[in-house]
Amino acid sequence: MAGPKYPGFDTLALHAGQSPDAATGARAVPIYQTTSYVFRDAEHAASLFNMERAGHVYSRISNPTVAVLEERMAALEGGVGAIATASGQAALHLAIATLMDAGAHIVASLALYGGSHNLLGYTLKRFGIETTFVAPGDPEAWRGAIRPQTRLLFGETLGNPGLDVLDVPEVSSIAHAAGVPLLVDATFTTPYLMQPFALGADLLYHSATKFLGGHGTAIGGVLVDSGRFDWEASGRFPQLTAPYEGFHGMDFEEESGTRAFLLRARREGLRDFGACMAPMTAFQILQGIETLHLRMPRHVENTRQVVEFLSQHPQVERVMYPELASHPDHALAKRLLPKGCGAVFSFDLKGGREAGRRLIESLRVFSHLANVGDAKSLVIHPASTTHYRMSDADLAKARIGPGTVRLSIGLEDPQDLIEDLERSLRLPR
Amino acid sequence: MNFSVAGRSAFAYTAAHALDAAKPTLVFVHGAGLDHSWFGLQSRYFGYHGRNVLAVDLPGHGRSEGPPLASIAAMADWVAALLDAAKLGRAAVVGHSMGALVALEAAARHPQRVEAIALIGVAYPMRVSDAFLDAAGRNDQAAYDMETIWGHAAQVPLAGNPNPGMWMYGDTLARLARLAPGVLHGDLKACNDYTGGLEAAAKVSCPAHFILGARDVMTPPRSARALERAIAGARTVAVPVSGHSLMAEAPDATLDALIEALQPEAAA
């Protein structure tokens, strides 16, 4: 007897989380541009506030349009649920603020987006949360950095910008042996290229601004919980396993088991920090997700062509893309990313910083800006922009040199992208 | 709140309230492979509306010490023993799926303790297919997939969740992933082996309420008819949009049905 079957990824990308609108029959996701929701009566209001009934109260906590995005992302990632946030950085902050207090410690990969490095390395220090950065490919460094105060291991599925591939099975097993969860930033891979929960990660987030939205139109983030980490058994998370005075003495794990993390993140994090997503933003990101399974293969295919061109060009010192045998994580990428290594990568020009500047200023199809994951191709110089607050030593550890250029390959005709690069590289030095 | 039942640690969620023997009591009994939080919204409501709530983790589930109990009768006796441990006399028993069989059997075996029953997503006989049982016996992921997919209405994966931001399939799978090997198989076998349903139904002397999901493919409403007919005065509420996981798929309708069914004066 054949067992039952789950809907496929492509179907979930179009349908998960949304029923046709009950009031109007609208098939597209309606934009519920409202701050608040009328209660049926006083008893209904009290029941919603006390979590005795499901529903919406105030759009900072939940909103029907935003909820579709949250449920769709949870479906695509195989999680129990999700919370959409004002940005990817807000999602990272929400995860950390939900899991730990002053005095806690994080072990994080060195190969991070500059904004994440700033938050962990500088800003959170002011609030008493310390981070130890480790080389993402060094299991002993991860293991050795864990302290009794450690509450989280954190890395990017594909590290920014050198594309270090995080060995999610290995790092998650190190985390679990220590009784702490692994959080990954899955922005560069999207659920189309990698399913981090299936590999052992416990929590993940996306800058939905990038490939999920996919068109450079909206800033947003999504934090997803696998529901698989046992907070009670860990013993390190009183935030989730002890009565919380801020919510009628609720013990979130006792109250909701698999949903404990998201419950506190929503009921405290969105309530008190307030970095929620606007419904219009959720709609725009949903529009992107509906074609994610069509766009990502084209992003990857275009990238492969550009990578091939650059890796053979005499002006290029090296190309950092894990599908190349020269990349240190080539074997790992073949194992964890069989559908491709995404559409963001870096390369070093002979001639250093000045050569990089000339190239960027000569490109016509590529846009010089601080974003990735757009349908349009983008270019930036990390050492002077996204990662400019990092020391030279940390830059080197993250494989960023003075001449490193980062490209985000879009959906244009790949020959036009190659010709744009070829022409710019041909210009007199 | 932790209790000691038959010398083993047993957990029941009380909605963060102390128990008070002067209040009416509701016991919530979960289905196969699940735990107390399956009744999260509903049990919390009653805990904040004047009832003692004991939303149990059956032995070997959630926070209760194992081993799991092998039969519906043993589970029914365990519920009565939990009331003893909690120093509470009588209670209404709300059960879902396997837990509904436990509530039925408890009403028959312990009529002096059970003042009303609410049977949610119930069938009798509660036959489990060989394929499902075999997969559960092997602790094969296929069993968890069957429990998840058949445990919800067909439209669930392509529809919204009443609980904002949650993915019902993912939640069920995450719960099942936490189970010790063999627990789901033991529960399914207890359901499949239970043959005392009609005999128990004939003995039920308290008010009985059925709450059934119209789109339930695990225990379709028609499979509850024999029990409905066998319990004198039983009442049935059909929840139109729900499959088997009524507390998650139709939380408000399920709660409203329970409020209507379990008014203290109705049970008196």
Q: Care to describe what's here?
A:
- The complex is a heterodimer of chains A (429) and B (268).
- Chain A has 429 residues and is α/β, with parallel strands linked by helices.
- Chain A folds into 2 domains: 16-288, Aspartate Aminotransferase, domain 2; 293-426, Aspartate Aminotransferase, domain 1 (Alpha-Beta Complex), CATH 3.90.1150.
- Chain A contains 19 helices and 12 strands.
- Chain A has helices at residues 9-15, 42-49, 64-77, 88-99, 114-123, 139-145, 168-177, 190-193, 196-199, 231-234, 238-241, 252-256, 260-273, 279-289, 292-311, 330-336, 352-362, 392-397, 414-426; strands at 81-85, 105-109, 130-134, 150-156, 182-185, 203-207, 221-225, 316-320, 344-349, 367-368, 378-380, 404-408.
- In chain A, the strands form 2 sheets. Chain A has a 7-stranded mixed beta sheet with strand order 1-7-6-5-4-2-3, sandwiched between helices. In chain A, strands 8-9-12-11-10 form a 5-stranded mixed beta sheet.
- Chain B has helices at residues 40-47, 72-85, 98-109, 130-137, 141-150, 168-177, 183-193, 197-203, 225-230, 246-249, 251-261, 264-267, and strands at residues 2-5, 8-13, 25-29, 52-56, 91-96, 114-120, 208-213, 235-239.
- The longest helix of chain B is centred in the N-terminal third of the chain and has 14 residues, at 72-85.
- By secondary structure, chain B is of the alpha/beta class.
- Chain B has one domain (2-126, 194-267): Alpha/Beta hydrolase fold, catalytic domain (Rossmann fold), CATH 3.40.50.
- Chain B is built from 12 helices and 8 strands.
- The chains are: A alpha/beta (429), B alpha/beta (268).
- At the A-B interface, helix 1, helix 3, strand 1 and helix 12 of A face helix 1, helix 4, helix 5, helix 6 and helix 11 of B.
In short:
The complex is a heterodimer of chains A (429) and B (268). Chain A has 429 residues and is α/β, with parallel strands linked by helices. Chain A has helices spanning 9-15, 42-49, 64-77, 88-99, 114-123, 139-145, 168-177, 190-193, 196-199, 231-234, 238-241, 252-256, 260-273, 279-289, 292-311, 330-336, 352-362, 392-397, 414-426, and strands at 81-85, 105-109, 130-134, 150-156, 182-185, 203-207, 221-225, 316-320, 344-349, 367-368, 378-380, 404-408.
